[in-house]
Amino acid sequence: MTSASCATPLKTLLNPRSVAVIGASEDQTKFGGRLYKTLLQHKYAGEVYPINPGRDTLFGLKTFPSINATPKAPDMVIMALPRDKVKGEIAACAARGAKAGIIITSKFSDAGPEGLALEREVVAAAAEHGMRLIGPNCLGLISPTNKLVLCSSPALNVPSLIEAPIGFVSQSGALMGTLFDRSYGMGIGFSHCVSVGNQADLELCDFVEFLIEDERTQVICSYVEGIKSPQRFVELARRARAAGKPWLMVKAGATDDGSRAAYSHTASLAGDFAALKAICERENVVMMDDPLDMLSLARAMVRYPARKVRDVAVITTSGGGGAISADQLSHAGIGLSRFNEATRTGLAEHYSEGQASNPIDVGGRKHEGTDELGVVTAELALADPATDLGLMVLTTAPDVPGLTRQLADGGERPAAAGKPTLYVMLPGRVAAPAREILVERGLPYVDTLAEAMAVLRGWKTWSTYQEPDAPVRPAGSAATAAPADGTLGEAASKALLAKAGMPVNGERLVRNADEAVDAAGTLGFPLVLKVVSPDIAHKSDVGGVALNIADAHDLRSRLAAMQASVAKAAPDARIDGYSLQKQESGELELIVGVRRDPQFGAQVVVGAGGVLVELLKDVAVLPAPIDAAAARRAVEGLKVAPLLRPYRGRGALDVDAVVDAIVRLSWLAHDLEGGAAGRDFEIEVNPLKVRLQGQGAVAVDARARIG
Amino acid sequence: MTSASCATPLKTLLNPRSVAVIGASEDQTKFGGRLYKTLLQHKYAGEVYPINPGRDTLFGLKTFPSINATPKAPDMVIMALPRDKVKGEIAACAARGAKAGIIITSKFSDAGPEGLALEREVVAAAAEHGMRLIGPNCLGLISPTNKLVLCSSPALNVPSLIEAPIGFVSQSGALMGTLFDRSYGMGIGFSHCVSVGNQADLELCDFVEFLIEDERTQVICSYVEGIKSPQRFVELARRARAAGKPWLMVKAGATDDGSRAAYSHTASLAGDFAALKAICERENVVMMDDPLDMLSLARAMVRYPARKVRDVAVITTSGGGGAISADQLSHAGIGLSRFNEATRTGLAEHYSEGQASNPIDVGGRKHEGTDELGVVTAELALADPATDLGLMVLTTAPDVPGLTRQLADGGERPAAAGKPTLYVMLPGRVAAPAREILVERGLPYVDTLAEAMAVLRGWKTWSTYQEPDAPVRPAGSAATAAPADGTLGEAASKALLAKAGMPVNGERLVRNADEAVDAAGTLGFPLVLKVVSPDIAHKSDVGGVALNIADAHDLRSRLAAMQASVAKAAPDARIDGYSLQKQESGELELIVGVRRDPQFGAQVVVGAGGVLVELLKDVAVLPAPIDAAAARRAVEGLKVAPLLRPYRGRGALDVDAVVDAIVRLSWLAHDLEGGAAGRDFEIEVNPLKVRLQGQGAVAVDARARIG
Questions:
Q1: Which domain holds residue A133?
Q2: Is A394 helix (H, G, I), strand (E, B) or coil?
Q3: Does A238 lie in the same domain as A175?
Q4: Angle at the Cα of A701 (from A700 to A702), degrees rounded to 5?
């Protein structure tokens, strides 16, 4: 279960000198038969030891009755034995000196506590001799780089493997096979694909780490159901970034229904999606919805590393294709590049009026039979400084392959400056020769506009990432000592916030009218009055909140009314007194808060407050502590952000104060987390009232739960 | 340009007894060569007259030097002549007695005013002899029902056409060819496909009408850039509905960028997208984003007509596939059906604990080698009363074709009650034999989850449609006489609204403090004061609005302050006086309004009001007049709808009053439209303050523009 003491590096494990296939066979209805044949078919260069007590040779290779009969200890063994035979065989292999094993068999920890216990015994049996395990309940691995296929999927029944610098780690074996098959058909290859199964020993992060270090891998793809080691995940994300290797991820369990399915599938608990998403955004691990789109993006990134993708030029064979592309780009938040004068003039030589702009419909050519129109068009559109990428949307046309070749040639002209292109091949059979041309020239393509949009969105996210600054504790703020466990009322919560440097409204606890009038002199009108009782959760339901108290006379009468109302509505409630608060004005209400995610630790939350909280679900989640620039980006990315800018005659609001509040809260969260590792906490300010620029923001209600 | 006097019905035009191909050839580099060969290849049963002055025979058929040399007048002619030869040839064909012609040639109205003039002359030349035209600037037609192919696209180079009851009308020729090609590869056929081009004579609605009447068409697909005859569009939508034929539509120009592309492509102006969307929602024309998804939905609807699709059961070969499916269904707003006890018990016989629920992973089987597990699973999942559709998500697996056959068998068991299934074939080549099985059995499939979601969303929209009641003018309201053209200030706008039966707040125009105090006695405090001036657009910018005026003393001082402030900020403004208004309370602010869409006429709008208008863009657009039930559905579909229900201790708000206001506004819009046909108008109420149930809603600000 721990992967700490990995005696043999994964690099060696995944490139074994010899492989033993337990239960090898020539019978293609059996797992051992399919696996053995596939291994031989792809010309693995190392030694293969088929293990089968009933045969002397299999497909011409000398066959051994047991693992103990092989000439040397194999580096790798693979098996799909019935569950009750796995432990014994693994023990034998480990004792023999096998370095690693793949267990395909399922019904271990994926099938409940009894299976989990057995799985632990299997891992222990291997670990006793330093043997490492992949699986159980996995589909094995495919390593085109090493010509090593240890996977029985029918998807592997192909003439030859395509090697490409894309690594793929999958928590679902069936998806690995499926994606291998689909991507093979699109000319997409891999360096290594690994199905990690139950991750009893080696886990997803081990393989990601390997891919980061692997010279033959440039882009890392992953299908994830749950993260086993959050801290390692974060550390690896940083290493991938430092290595300049994009890490793409499809995460199942984004929704309630999805989580349930993931849970019933594997032994891994799907973590809190929002928390993981926040971490991924901070660390630039790109989350995608669909695994095939992820592979299409990987192919594009491999072809055009380190390119920024924001605005695209569309070149199409059909005005209709251009119109639909423009619609879909707009929905996806990708801009159409605005061509400059030179580009428009260049295009106007070849295109009718109104057609010499983005999107460009090559059908709108001015003269029939312009030679090499595709070359000129692609070159001009890509050469424009505003264009980051050329999106070639092809429909049926008299000579799709010819046009494809022209566009590709144009994209390779020096003026195009090596800018990325992505082809969208809308026809089926008619475009098959054109697809072949693209595969030959290593140019990325997809088959639908929806896939293109997913690729562009992911690419934009990755390439416009801004490395966060190291968070700095705000001036004049010291670490906050963690309070004792418990639920904190409004006053205690605000006191904790004030200690962390958050502005809170002035407040006094009073017990009667005279005390109230006395306190009002200090606080100043207008005032708010709230009943304070450990027994009353919803104060306004019992008439326990009074707003806009204008003067001493008003205060006395409103307090008397409140006492009467509360006594009637909650006769048994213990009344600690009444909280008299300065009524604060504000132009906008936000909600801010902190919580501890069980996997990823302290997080800060900011969003639309007041009645809008539940309505808009307009919230940014950020790992704590956070630097001011990232806090500002989060605030400016909220749906309510337009209300922070000058609006209907009033000036801009005090975003600096909001950012400062978030940063301070994030440090409070950090301190609470550090104070007692693993202790749970949750603090919510709603509303934080935001005033005009220079006038600050203030917390007027808060609650907290510690431990 | 008019299609009123269609002497020959389209049914006959699209099923001609003879076709003349102007410029026929054997040369496959020429349009006439490709078209002629394709026509012959698909075994058109009528007479073919190749026209080519230089040849006696072409591909063995007697060839004629001109249209005048053919033995009879052809029912149909097709040509792709250079533009300057089109008019003469059409005139000759019309004179010869041809009933219809297809003009492929472009650069007519699609290329500016000069082309438009020429196009009109061509239409006139045809009309002189009652000849009808398709195009120009089109790709022709494909009619598998009539074995008639008048289209040169390489997509038609297939061994045989697939006939299916799907009709397709396209404003883009290239998209027609593209979709024909792609759908052919998926086993999707058509009754008729028509590319309408510039619609100089016959237009999109003519062909939709034909498809509604056509016995061989069950589902109508359309790709639309702009609607030429909105009223006819609405009328046809109703006829399609009455005929039980779903009408699906992809509309280009949904966004600004899309509109620009559509505009530069054809001569048709993309209409206001929101207005068209409102009409489509009312008339149950299903809008989709992607044309391929539209065809996939059409195929599914043809296979399972008149089925309601809301909640689905997912059956998958992979837990990962199930998890991702559940996520995507949740995003798409499609539910997972909740199995009842009987289904769960039935599944539990075959599946491990925790796997006998929706989504079902057939890999989670309890016993290896259960025969026909797929049959039992599909039967149980579909038989469950909560299941409307079975979504079969297939990954690579040892025997995908076998499982596919089992699932299909299960779906045909009587217990499954003929419920729809949709297969998602995630692998590529490995699933090819399984795709063939599905095509043979006429079962719909798609290749990605994204496509499946688009199909399910469209199907749900269509099948859960509620036919609107006929709108009824509210009791006690008479037709509102249309006011004169002009921009109406707040008072005049509110007077117009009040005449239509809308509740507005009490208001008096005053000129000085004494008049104000006098009026206040009638209105009652608290009050609002607003400056009234034709020269001041934004009253609050000049200090021209005062709220919460508590008493006479306050009124005098606030009026004096306003006079000073306005005099300073807008010294030259003409001041008509000051509007003193009752300050109305309300729990929620909505915006309501009416406008005239240039294409679809009177419309009513309702949405989140106050500061939320621009923020949420939470608006429903509805054609006016509207019935109360539809108004209620629109209000309840708003993002702010949760605030109309009981919320944080307060009761529900007066939705009845909001509905009544919308209905009355919609009749006002109707009356304004009727009063002077084609006159533009726009009335906006913001905010409409909504109070607690039984306490009504009131318009507190309004403006209007008539003419």
A1: 10-299
A2: strand
A3: yes
A4: 130
- Rounded to a whole number, what is the distance in angstroms from the first to the last CA of chain B? 28
Residue B271 pLDDT: 41
The answer to whether B195 faces chain A, any CB pair under 8 Å, is no
CB contact (8 A) between residue A323 and residue B265: yes
Cβ distance of B290 and A448 shorter than 8 Å: yes
Residues A290 and A201 in one domain: yes
Joined together, the tokens standing for residue A465 give 């990432």
Dihedral pair phi/psi, residue A189, rounded to 5°: -110, 180
**CA A664 – CA B162 distance, rounded (Å):** 67
- Of all residues in chain A, the one with the smallest CA distance to B366 is A107
Give the residues of chain B that fall short of pLDDT 50. Answer: 1-6, 258, 260-271
Contact in structure between A216 and A244 (CB atoms under 8 Å): no
Is A355 an interface residue toward B (CB < 8 Å)?
yes
Closest to A178 measured CA to CA, from A151, A144, A147, A143: A151
Q: What is the pLDDT of residue A370?
A: 64
A258 touches chain B (CB under 8 A): yes
User: Could you tell me the CATH number of the domain that includes residue A615?
Assistant: 3.30.470.20
Q: Are residues A286 and A366 in the same domain?
A: no
- Interface contact A218, partner B, CB < 8 A: no
DSSP A571: T
Residue A478 lies inside a defined structural domain of this protein: no
Give CA–CA dist B50/A106, Å, rounded.
Answer: 68
CA distance B587 to B650: 9
Q: Give the separation between CA B506 and CA A587, rounded to whole angstroms.
A: 28
**What CATH number corresponds to the domain at position A529?**
3.30.1490.20
CATH number for the domain spanning B193: value is 3.40.50.261
pTM of the entire predicted model: 0.91
Q: Is the minimum CB–CB distance between A529 and chain B shorter than 8 Å?
A: no
Complex ipTM, two decimals? 0.89
Q: Tell me the C-alpha distance between B253 and A43, whole Å.
A: 53
pLDDT of residue A518: 94
Q: Which helix (H) or strand (E) holds A179?
A: helix A173-185
Among A265, A318, A429, select the one facing B175 at the smallest CB separation.
A318
Q: How far is B270 from chain A (nearest CA, A)?
A: 11
Same domain flag for B87 and B200: yes
B170 and B186 both lie in a single domain: yes
Domain count, chain B: 4
* Domain contains A317: no
B37 in the same domain as B182: yes
The pLDDT value given to residue A263? 40
Partner B contacted by A330 (CB < 8 A): yes
The enclosing H or E element of A567 equals helix A552-569
Residue A216 buriedness (CB in 10 A; 0-12 / 13-18 / 19+): middle
**A349 and A375 part of one domain:** yes
Is A506 an interface residue toward B (CB < 8 Å)? no
Given this model, what pLDDT does residue A58 score? 96
- The token duo for B343 is 């289904």
Pick from A252, A329, A649: which is nearest to B257 by CB?
A329
- Residues of chain A with confidence (pLDDT) below 50: 1-6, 258, 260-271
End-of-domain residue from the set B551, B582, B613 = B582
* Residue A447 belongs to a domain: yes
* Cβ atoms within 10 Å of B243's Cβ, excluding its own: 16
Q: Do B178 and A318 touch (CB under 8 A)?
A: yes
Question: Any idea which residue has 């206040």 for tokens?
Answer: B520
CA dist list (Å): A564 to A519, A532, A553, B360: 21, 15, 17, 59
Q: Both A568 and A611 in a single domain?
A: no
User: Buried b vs exposed e over A19-35: b needs ≥16 C-beta within 10 Å?
Assistant: bbbbbbbeeeeebbbbb
pLDDT score at A198 = 95
pLDDT for A340 equals 96
Residue B492 domain flag: no
Q: Which residue, of B269, B299, B329, is where some domain finishes?
A: B299
